[in-house]
Fold each of these.
Amino acid sequence: MGWRVAGRAQPVTLWRRPGAISALGLALAIGLLLLAGGAIAALMMAAGAGSGGLSTQAAAYIRHVTLLTFLQASLSAVLALSVAILVARSCWRRAMEWRARYLLLFSFLPVVLPTTVAATGLIAVWGQSGFVSAMLTAAGMPPLRPIYGLGAVLLAHVFFNAPLMLRVLSGALAGIPAAQWRLAAQWGLSDWQRFRQIEWPALRRVIPGLLALVFLLCFTSFSLVLMLGGGPSVTTLEVSIYTALRFEFDMALAGRLALLQLVVCAVIVVLLTMVTGRSWSGGAGHAGRHVTQRGDQGLAARLTDGVVIGGFVVLAVVPVAAVIWHGIGPHLGTILAWPALWQATVTSLVIAIVSGGLATGVALVIAAARTRRFGAGLAVWPLDLSISLYLAVSAIVLGTGLFILLRQVADVFALAPALVVLGNMLVALPFAYRVLEGRLSSLATSHDRLCASLGIRGWRRFRQVTLPALFPELGYAAGLSSALSLGDLTIIALFGSQQFQTLPWLLYQTMGRYRAAEAAALAFWILGLTLATFAICVLAARLAGRRHHA
Amino acid sequence: MLEIRNVTFRRPNGPSFSFDLSVEQGDILAIQGPSGVGKTTLLDLIAGFETPDQGSIAWQGQDFLAAPPWQRPVTNVFQADNLFEHLSCAENVAIGLDDAGRQDRAAIDRAFQRLGIDGLQKRLPGTISGGQQQRVALARALLRGKPVLLLDESFSALDWPTRQGCFDSLREIAVADRMAVLVVSHDSRDAAYLGSDALTLGE
Amino acid sequence: MRSFLTILTAVAALLLSAGTALAADRPVLTIYTYDSFASEWGPGPAVEEAFEEGCDCDLQFVALDSSIGILGRVQLEGSSSKADIVLGLDTNLMATARETGLFAPHGTKLEGRTSLPVDFADDMFVPFDWGHFAFVYNSETMAAAPSSMQALIDSPDDLRIVIQDPRTSTPGLGLLLWVKSVYGDKAPKAWAKLAPKIVTVTKGWWDAYSMFLEGEADMVLSYSTSPAYHIVVDGTDKYRAAAFDEGHYMQVEVAAMLKSAPQPELAADFMDFILDDGFQSVIPTTNWMYPAGKAGIPEAFSGLITPAKSLLFTPEEVAQNKSAWVGEWQGALSQ
């Protein structure tokens, strides 16, 4: 018998055959592709319809907005990264194991914190009649200048993205082998040398992906810029698409801007998938424990770290605290007496539940189809493309396309509720999909042989084996999609009207009227509903999972 | 008798293997050898996770190469991940059985008693020891009523006294239930303790 | 899955019933207008009551976020629009609106019924009020207001003003035309110099005025008649309009009925009603503008500034140049 040394067994996927679920998944994926295709085609037609040649003025405007968006997104990404690196190093140096955990816990908050709420909180802290100005005035100094404009937008983007970066960077630092820290301590490396020789190589692996991701988020930023930008001097392509569509009713301009945005986003998404392996998405498990380094215990180092961490807490926590502080004040009573509030609450909740449920359901079907193998990979690409397309097609671009597409056949404003549900579902889809697909494929790999050998197949396998194990992720996906929808100001900005209002839209209007106290109370209301919805979804799923064993 | 005759298998761009062996009912055959010599591949071919390029694999003279894994006269206990984390031990056993078997609670309880894990029926796999988990998997394999039992390093992660206990149960079962058992192991103590024939691959 | 479908059906039913529940037995006259007109503090409720007295109908205002948005909305909806009448455009938009071909002649006699400072004869638009744009300030926090547009532009940059977007709001467009009529080709330079003082550019008049009242700006673009509101309602004369030497741009607000109006007769009745006393008498103390018809002017209006010179482009001039001038504005402001 002649044996030769060999490689390892490959995962068996032979018995994940295409079935009803694959057909359904494929049908849904094709539906999604057609929808996006229709929207893009409508944009192209609209852009083409106005082609009496672009006036030099319009061309200059588009150029200017694009440049401004690039500048703003680059600045935001770099600033957020600098803040995150500083804080991550300080946390690590202070060996804040348990405290760091809390820090990371609340850095989850921006994931579900509605941008509308955050903007209200930022104004409550940094606004002209805000908390910081009040302290300055009390100290006999002039209050802050109004925070509208580029400064406000950058502040908001750092607020949202630095915590995200902090999580990843902390993971990267924790992944540095303990031996390297020990060597550094033995050699007595200075702070700078340590950063250069030990920390930077670890951070450098995750930074390009992080920068690209945050750049994309800031490039497509809409509601923050809408609320804090303060007019045409600070805008993004997204906001200018919105103004072209809803202010000027200029379909040709909106179509052109949307196509431009689409191309830029597609390029960034492709770059993003190129620079990111799985590396940036989390730190390594084998954490090197912190070793006390030369100079760490000095007064200067302690002071610096204290200021950095304290400053970060002020930056990230105080705006949320301000919303809560204002929210539980007497103005909550005022807004609770508004009939419009209750109407908007019901509308928002219904939209959130329906679009969250739909997003989770569609993501589940497509992910389930994806984990099944098709002959020669032939039918996989529509599934993949149907999801990744919606990363590049931003909410505004999609909404604009649908708007232009549907206005030819129907009354867009009469369809608003359905369109808002659809839009929110599509925006949440990639997130829900990422959560479910990851878990499903890992479940599939770990269960394949066992299920094949036990003869548990098809619907029975899904119901008895896969679904119960998937409950936590289903809850998380549903919670996340509903929370996203509850906080949405993008889709509703396109389709909303005085007759069809959601809570964020009402908040935007209230802020527009400059009723700061009522706006804060309203923000608190939205925040509470969002967190409650998220928590209920997650807990209900956990309960359903537990009930299963009983 | 399980017979594997002139079986060859080659992975795309990989090494090629060929096997020729047989195991009687009530016998245990230990498969040994360094990693990469095809121990797991052999079990995969028997269980139907891989398809040989040629040769035949038969039980009592009947070739079952055309059957999918769940229709073969074969049952497995893998090295790890034998149990579904969300199901209790008893449910984990029941899920691998046919409808009649699933109803027969008494049989399940008897199997737990026989393997010395009685009382764990309601527990979740995460709350019991590794040795207990593998015994639960073994209980399921027994109740499935398949005559060929394949164990791929099933007890290798356990400490030696625990492993001995598992082997004791295994030996008893093989004889009592007249099963043909293949045990893949990298540890030569296993074959010695089992007192079984040993086939060393890679020589 | 089944319960999910049940929810979905229930929601669909809910949304549908909300839409159809509005269908009452009386004919409904639908008027698109801007938010502050339809609000409880605006002329809307009084106008509705007065008109419904004389007809067996239900007058419904649909409030849009901004005045120019009204035109965009009916353009977007085209002939399928539910609107009978749009109310809240101004002379600057008349030529543009006429070109859309969406509007019908009103058939109302204007002659002898108006009290406008300019000649107004049009077969499609009926004027309902008028006024002069002006910057309003709080005289308690700002001792001396600029006395001319030039002085405003030359003010130090820590003066904070809030204005409206000319693409969405008739006051915003009014200011754009005001600056244009004062500075002509040099308007972009004037805007560039004004830019640092602009705290924010809002979508509509109401947003900007609220912001000013909350103390987030020193001056707001509004009307010379705005202080009357504070005199009558708040009993204070601390809010003043700044009189500018170069003159003030004028606004005449107008309404028009749609060709596709579902209730053409009711719409025609309403067009005629606009210049009646039932409409005109509520204008000064609810919309805080001068009535276009012959109605009394309250005492509080007597202390207001009266511009030495009224500035006004013809509707055709505006229609021809608007997009170029807005482009200029956008360019100057985004430097």
Amino acid sequence: MIWKHELRLFLRERAAIPALLLLLALATASVVAGLAETARQRAVIARIQPVQAADVAALADGDNPGDAPYSTYHATWNAPNPLAFAALGQRDIAPYILRVRALGLEAQLYDGETFNPELALPGRFDFAFVLTYLLPMFVIVLLHDLRAREDEAGRSAALQAMSRNAGLLWFRRRAVRGLLLYAMILPPFLVGALVSRVPPGQIVAVSLLALLYLMFWLALATLVERLGWKSAANAGALVAGWLILTLILPTLANLAINSAVPVRQGLELALAHRQKVHAAWEIPRAETLNAFYRTNPRWSGASPPKGFDDKWYFAFHEVADESVAPAARAYQQGLLDRDRLTQRLGWFIPAIGLQARLHRMAETDLSAQLAYQDRIREFHSRLRQFYYGYLFSDRPFTRTDYPKAPKWGDGMGGLPPSR
Amino acid sequence: MKSASVPIDQATPAVHLRDVRVRRGERIILDSLTFSVGRGEIYALLGGNGAGKSTAIATILGFLPYAGGAVRVCGDDPARDGYRVRGHIAYLPENVALYEHLTAVENIAYFLAVAGQRRSPDAVMAALNSSGLQAEAHERRLVGFSKGMRQKVAIALAILREVPVFLLDEPTSGLDPSASSDFNALLLRLRNAGAAIVMVTHDLLGVVDCADRIGFLESGRIADEAVASGPDRFDLRELHARYGKRVLAA
């Protein structure tokens, strides 16, 4: 009964319904935007295969077995996880499609770093953004003066005099506001999750995370309220808390992590690889081929190159890959170290913790991106071995051989584009 | 009047304070404050600013601890069980602050719910009528209500709580003479129904209309007490001569 009265009391407040509707609209818009973006990415991935087939059809038969691996691009893609609509994470700045040739991989792998750098700072407007950054603002708007306004209106004494349990009174008021905020933000996510066929376990996990995060902000508002300040001072303190917890601390933490774990840019690896490839033209062929055969003894019996030979050309591309491999591993390890530190910070800074967990579940975080690169490396290795079978055996490669080439998704963990 | 939830021993004074001492830091606010109010009695506590009126109210309600003496409301000690004591009391603060965005009826329903009580719509209407609030205002939001109208809503709420003790803080301040007179008439009806009413005020002329006894509070203690009946019945002129100037000046 009292809950009904509390609900009416709250909903009659001037700011209550507009604030709740605004939150509902923002949550809905974020889910719609997330679903549209993941649908767009799936559509782009779906278009890749016909394009790939058209490319292959346009290639002519040739006597030179090096032409096919040189000219043929093979599509790889990282299809969005069903939960990606809620937390797009790195999917807007890291490539989710990469077409690779059997040439040196490291130069191709980091082309994507230049795709959307302008999106890196503001980030996408997705459910994770609304939950992490905007929901606390609504908590502040609706709860900063929960008690202070009663003090300022002179109702506190009467309320306390009538209430059988004043603590319960304030708890009910906080609960009504908290539950309504939760009721505004969760249904759009649930609808999006059903549309996107998110597994029930993940739906429950995200719902619980959202609830925990909301409870953190409710607790913070309660803590500030206990200081007994005026409502304006409470609002100021909570907004300052929001700035510190969602913007300043994460930014400082990011700077500290970047400083503690220096990592070269991926593009530097690509440049280093290209320099190795360019330098290889000046190195005696035997030296390059010997280095190649040490890691590919299977082809060491191949006929020696005469003049320009694709064997040598592909060999120095692979040797260039090997020469930058330690730097590539260090780069990946550095990113993983940064990611690990970020995850740890998440235990102390709720905004970071929430986003890190959402992105981890949605497979849109750094580790998911690195896992995609690992799958590309594995696929690329299979491509090389496939083409080397023609190249180092001097077997002609014809149009009928194209279908035999490895395909992305054949045991690669790449999801079919129809998903 | 009857208690809604807590059985009361009728022989026990409704409100009893004996040698109550309240300090704030080094300052003594109430110093051996002693008075009792029985059922069916209106006790007016008069005093100037700083005399200790508000502190006395807060102590009776259990909001302030007392350093010495004893306070009992229907036999219960507010320092030990404030919630139980407040269950015996209908408290009307000086500025009746209700929710502007609720109607009179909704305000009453809300505050009753906070107190864990529920009354039928007919009972609510009857209480509002009894308090003198016009029928057309019952379902109106409080925005635009005068102080007197708000006071009537609060009185209706107090009536509906069906508690034995009414604690009123400057109930007629800001009311026009007619509204004050109506209010005093209502208090008399409540008293006649058996309520114990403690009224803190500095409206000497107002309390003469309705109070059975008047306690003059000075520096945290009852400096003098006057009764309305019997051989020691108070005389308004004499009261005014003794205390009026000081109280009215405050």
Amino acid sequence: MLWLFALIAGVLFGLYYGLAALGLNLIFGVMRMVNLAHGDVIMLGGFAAVLLFDRFGVNPLVTVLLVIPPSLLVGYLTYYLLGRRVQRSRDPEMMSLVMFFGVSQVIEAVAVIAFGNNEASITSAVFGARPFSIAGQGVPGAWLVSAGVGLVALLLLFLYLYRTSLGRATRAIMSSPDEARAVGVNPDRISALTFGIGVGLAAIAGILSLFMIGGTTPSEGVDLTVTAFAVIVLGGLGSPMGTFLGGIVFGLALMFTQTFAPAWSGFAPFAILLAIMLLRPTGLLGRTVRSV
Amino acid sequence: MSSIAQRLRAGAGAVGRRPRRQVVGDVLLVVVPPAGFLVASLVYNNQLLLLTMMVYVALAQGLNVIFGFTGYLPFGYVGFFGAGAYGTALSVHFLHAPIALAILLGGLAGLLVAALLSPLLRLTGAYFAIASLAAAEALYYLISNPQLTAVTNGPYGVNLASVYNSGAAYLAAVVLVGVAMLCVVWVRRSHFGMALRAIRADPLAARLAGVNVVRARTIAWLISATLAGLAGAIYAWAVSVFYPEAVFDLSISVFAIVFALFGGVGTVLGPLLGAVILYGVYNYIGVSQPQDFQLIYGVLIVLIVLFLPNGLLSIRLRRLWRGR
């Protein structure tokens, strides 16, 4: 029943990958900016959980709540200090890509100086030592917790976007910034708030990444950003809900190749990504982007 | 639209009868940088550092051809570099090609990978950037696959010690710098470069003015990839022992992008200056404290984008305009 395990693990990892990519996609959807420091924020989230657990014995699930206020603040300030200026440049999409690479380098360097170059981790026994049984397959409790947190985050984001006035303003900016401005939406305020939410989602994903992909190191940011990119392109850029579909496709592809062709597990997700981009460049649920 | 057509025609005409000063300037732009590197090797004894700097000059200029003149930013640019390195290594191992031919075959490998990936040019903006990154990652995982050890030696890397010759590799890199400068000068001055700039300004108008948009972009893409392939080939020869993760390292793409941007994309001199200055600073600081260097470098990148988005060369122009 290997395939059943791969199926279950693929869906659980997919929900985690969806969460890990959600913030990146939300920021892109609203600001048309690519936050290349996304993976480094995930890394910082992991370190926050490890430090709080080691020093004060804080349960990682509590840390999930604790990282939200500082993330909102950091994201808010980042937008006003860096994002707004680059958004008004000649080529915001490309310039933001390069600028946030710089930010990513700074975060990585500061993390090495602060935490050293060692791996930091929390024992997965925090979420129960015995595996849970789903359809006869043993699944670690931490995987279920991560998938659950991913689902809750998706639900809250959905409620925010579709049931609040701020969310409506956010969607207005996503579909047409000029028209949104014309009807009185303040794009700076919405963008800053969105940046905060995006950073917060990344930090939460970082806490869970301790249990899904193992311990965290300062240099893992770039790999995480690349993975998050792959996921959001699968689901469609600028489509937050599609991100979870992309995550599940990515998770399934990863788990099935890891189970049946471990030598190809690195190659397969990117090959699938390329195939989807060439056959359906808008992603699975995305909007039209093709031109000329 | 008609004005673009006129400019195109005027541009084509201008190629034929250009002022002598400009021709002399162009020749100097192609000849002086390689000559400078030749002289530098006599004065400064860290040849591998200079060679790596030349490789980055070629990469920054290659990136300039595609990014500076068409606006397409390939984040996976390193894929062509890696393809060139492996193309050369495999030519030496399996075809027993002489090294000069093997390096040309490395450039050909970059060209072929680019031809294979040319459908990616249908995408735009961040989509294109990310798709090219995915392509480079896929190529890396394909080459480092343990099941392909018989062909590529998988994750265990390649050894070119049998053809190692540091002096000749240095000369090859000097030639490469000349070729890269020549490509950019040609793109900058030719009818073809004018067409690229017209496409960048307004693809639809350019097409109406009779420019074959798809063909022009594809040619720029192939030139850019061939330069990266040659750079990878010469780098592979110079270091002679390397692992797949070293020649498919994403930071190679990013360095090329940052060097080109720092100097100024779309210019002839900018990427050269960017690579020489920033790679020089990199090594000056990087030798003592890697993370301090990374911190300074990161801050520098942010500052460039915020305050000098058009690169170093724009400072000079701005001052000239103010003077008038």
Amino acid sequence: MIPKTHITQKDIVLQIKDLQKSFGDNHVLNGFNLTLYQGENLVIMGKSGSGKSVMIKCLVGLMEADSGSISVMHKDITKLNQSALDILRADIGFLFQGSALYDSMTVRENLEFPLRRHSKRFNKNTTTDTLVIEALQSVGLESAIDLMPSELSGGMKKRVAIARTLILKPKIILYDEPTSGLDPITAKEIILLMKKLQKQYGTSSLIITHDVDCARVISDRMLLLIDGKDYAVGTFLELSKNEDPKIKAFFKN
Amino acid sequence: MAWYGRLKTRKDAFLIEIGELSFFTFRFFKDLFKYPFEFKELARQCYILGNRSLVLVCITGFIIGLVLTLQTRPTLMEFGAVSWMPSMVSISIVREIGPIITALVCAGRIGSGIGAELGSMRVTEQIDAMEVSGTNPFKYLVVTRVLAITLMLPLLVIIGDAVALFGSFIVENTKGNVSFTLYFNQVFDAIEFGDLMPATIKTFFFGLAIGLVGCYKGYYCKKGTAGVGAAANSAVVVASLLLFVIDFIAVFITDIFFDL
């Protein structure tokens, strides 16, 4: 991560300002702010139903915010048309909570799918096969290339989903509960893999998790989402020592 | 007045559903001519939807042909009109029974399949994953499926009609010793342009209705496995009802233009 003293506007890859989102009378996001810097791992924690997934969906245009601005790579996604948004989406990898692998496709076809629209990002000499194998090698699953998702374990599905996220070589990766539903050993393997890949590809990561161990290992900074707002921001150490009862509740175990 | 409140809620829900389905249909026609054209996926869907329903359509058609002939034979014999059997059976099958039975079978087989498949893709966030990867999921999933069933259903109906007539011939051959050539000569003498054309045209609309309803129910499936089941179930119910409405309109229009 870049030391804070050297941070410039250019190093900011993602910025959310005063984001508001309501469902009827339920104000899920109520003036939420966030800044993600180049090469940084920012962990977002919050209670269930606090709006973490809503926020991340607004970030990639899957959901429309009521108000506020979302700037990704210095482009306000709320003002982009569909084709410009599709192009920008190639720079944002998204790892879904349940992996979201396409059931009817093999692992190879799952990885080839994002390349259909974004093949122009790569050199003409780079073949689809090379990219697929490279991505699978980086998650240690090249042997699973012709398997169907139904033949994979939960941990393997997560790895393939990470490989699919990486295949376009995005600048930002959004992880929605990357360790949910996994046993502690597999969860640790996935966390270490995320850390290794972050260094290898030089990406910035936004990680939504409930897993305090995951946050401790991977975070450069943490943000606590409480009452629809960015309640507290700091390093894991800073926040874990904070005496505010709302913050303390996250770390008491 | 609780019943009035419930009725009003149901009426509102019904009207909202009609509005949403109309918007969905409009979006289908808008996206149909938009780049990129998913020819590979369209061909794959044509193969899957057509091939998977073929056996069912053939079995149903064959049994309908057998039953229709067996049931009608005694009455025609009573009036000494048994020689009219091929003409009567062919006209009823080609005009009405073939298209509607095949469409109902496909609504059950294909409509529910599409509803459940897209519903489960929605619930497991696969549709969101597609959108995030820069692919228009509506175009990739909905347009290809609706177009595939619209193109495949008329073919399935023609095959189903042929098998049903063959089933009818088996009964006639067994009970009345009618030859293959004689039976089908009478069949082709009886069928006119006014029987074949409107019946074929309406099957395109049947296919369109089955595809649109199945995709609509699946694409906007509510969260959870119960939502997937409900999507598959209501895809069949709504599509079947729509088929009868379309059939009535088609017969009404045919009556005006071809003077049935």
